[in-house]
Design goal:
Length: 160
């Protein structure tokens, strides 16, 4: 099935027409996949190739193996610092094309003892491709250097 151009104004609109609902759904689904360790579900919500970025630069994720390495590194980080849940919320979201949502969100880690981490802000694009919303690009502003490391360093899947 050929992918439609997400900026094509004649593209068939996706079923969900509230961009905040779309962005919130992505946050909930990816959080559930992280905490159940379900990479297969996690991967279905990402469009590849894509760019992920931090203040330290951008990294191109070309393959599912690249995505798996980021997933594994983030899980290892969560485990190392004792993350038991995430508190994430959509700050703003809007359609920039019929099949592209631009969204900004904030996230905090809930740690053992219910202590919250400093806030990380994320911004990205969600695209409706092949009948599903997918994360197509994301950038993060985090005070935690370990988040930057998990996102930016080359890792082998299954290792961090």
């Amino acid at each position: 099935m050929a992918e439609t151009d997400p900026l094509d104004q004649t593209a068939h609109p996706p079923p969900e027409t509230d961009p905040v609902v779309v962005a919130d759904m992505m946050l909930r689904v990816t959080e559930a996949a992280y905490f159940s360790g379900d990479f297969e579900t996690f991967a279905t919500w990402f469009h590849l190739p894509q760019t992920v970025g931090t203040f330290d630069g951008d990294r191109r994720l070309e393959t599912e193996a690249d995505l798996r390495a980021v997933f594994d590194a983030m899980l290892a980080h969560f485990k190392a610092v004792g993350v038991i849940a995430l508190r994430r919320k959509v700050l703003a979201a809007r359609f920039i094309a019929p099949t592209v949502v631009e969204a900004t969100f904030a996230a905090q880690y809930i740690l053992r003892g219910h202590v919250l981490s400093e806030e990380t802000v994320g911004h990205g694009h969600l695209r409706y491709v092949e009948g599903q919303w997918k994360i197509a690009e994301s950038h993060y502003a985090s005070p935690d250097p370990e988040i930057t490391r998990a996102l930016m360093e080359e890792h082998q899947a299954g290792q961090s």
